[in-house]
Amino acid sequence: MTPREPGTLQSSPETAGPPVTVSITRLVEPDRIPEVTRWVQSGVNLANRYPGFLGSGWVRSHGNSREWHMLYRFADHDALSTWEHSDDRQRWLDLGRDLVVESRVEKRTGIEGWFDAPADTPASSAPPRWKQAVSIWLGFFPVNLAFTYLVGWLVPAFGALPVLPRVLVTTLVLTPVMTFWVLPFVTTLIRPWLLAAPRER
Predict the structure, then answer these.
(1) Cβ 114 vs Cβ 187: under 8 Å
(2) Rounded CA gap, 123 and 195, in Å?
(3) Higher pLDDT, 199 or 52
(4) DSSP 3-state assignment of 116?
(5) CA 124, CA 127: separation in Å to the nearest integer?
(6) What percent of the chain has pLDDT above 70?
(7) DSSP letters along 67-116, please?
(8) If phi over 0 gives left and psi between -120 and 50 gives alpha, with beta otherwise, what is residue 60?
């Protein structure tokens, strides 16, 4: 079965907007894992050449699972459409035709796309809110700390500003940094922990 995302070419064009996360579930035979890993990485390398590509990752539900949940994200629908309709992507999909079987594709917008489990997994697979909060803090704390030290060193007078303009500048700078770079990196890095099933007592 060709690993082509169903409905991609037939869907109506969408206007640019918030970042779009694509979640794909693919079935992989255990003896093909090394080949599939190389194939997936080659696709990431190709997508990384396209404007608006924000990152990607993949994870299995458990060690013996044949289901791979793969994610990638673009800055908006237009950037995603450029990648989805590219010759590079079509050639890449053709190379994986005999490696994987695609079972589901979903597209989500906003931050939730990095946390939600695919819809074909049990609802309990979605990470609890406290894990999402930890993920955001793990990215926000070091970024905020680095920003504070850097600005204090480069612009010593910044610390003397009133609280309102200081917070305004800080949030204006750090919000896009968190959304487009830090949060995708953190959630990809700790995704096995995010989606891990709770331990039975």
Answers:
(1) yes
(2) 11
(3) 52
(4) coil
(5) 8
(6) 77
(7) EEEEEEEESSHHHHHHHHT-HHHHHHHHHTTTTEEEEEEEEEESTHHHHP
(8) beta
